[in-house]
Input
Amino acid sequence: MSQTVEHLLKNSHLPGPRGNLELLGSFSKTASAKEIAECLSYCQDDLHNSPEEFVVMCGIVGFCIKNNNRIKKTLSTIRKYASHSSWRIREAVAIGIQEITENNTKEILENLKVWMDGNDLEKRAIVAALCEPKLLKEKSFILELLEILKQITMPFAKIEGKLSENQNSLRKTLGYGWSVAIVSLPKEGKASFEKIAKNKNKQIQWIVKENLKKNRLKVMDKTWVESLQNYVLQNYR
Output
């Protein structure tokens, strides 16, 4: 074990409610390829709330930053971690993607769209990664994101029974992701969301109601939020 990994294990803040995100950030930006590979070698099935879980997180984010000039290869390498049983490792995938998106929006979108044919946790990674305010600056990027959100949301309309754990995880992320996208491009975002809101399926309605609770939408346009809430209340009890 290298001194670096030993340091990460000792200072992970895990087990505990919150990993050492400051350490994750500083390590990821300076790590060597060898250190990153050593971190990733700690990945196994059950790492819940352990120092080793934190080490793998560092490896994923570090790998993304180290390989930000090879987007396609980077995304295909980290894709498997998006379905890991650890929610922190899944979150590290989203953080890693965010770290390399800013100057590579076109290439990120092209290569992440492949994940839309994948499982629910891969779709969740797309939403968690891209629905990040600091990334939503270009109109064309936000318009593509709104279309992606629609395509990921609408399959819920076919679900009548109980959600699986992974479907529930995706639904929760969509339950805030729309609001982030809408405030970044209000006119187009609201129009896109209103179409979703007309669907009667209870899972879609849950996603709509959760987003309408978000303060960022109320700050953007309180009248619109209240109007849509009333519409949902009157039509879909």
About this structure: The chain has 13 helices and no strands.
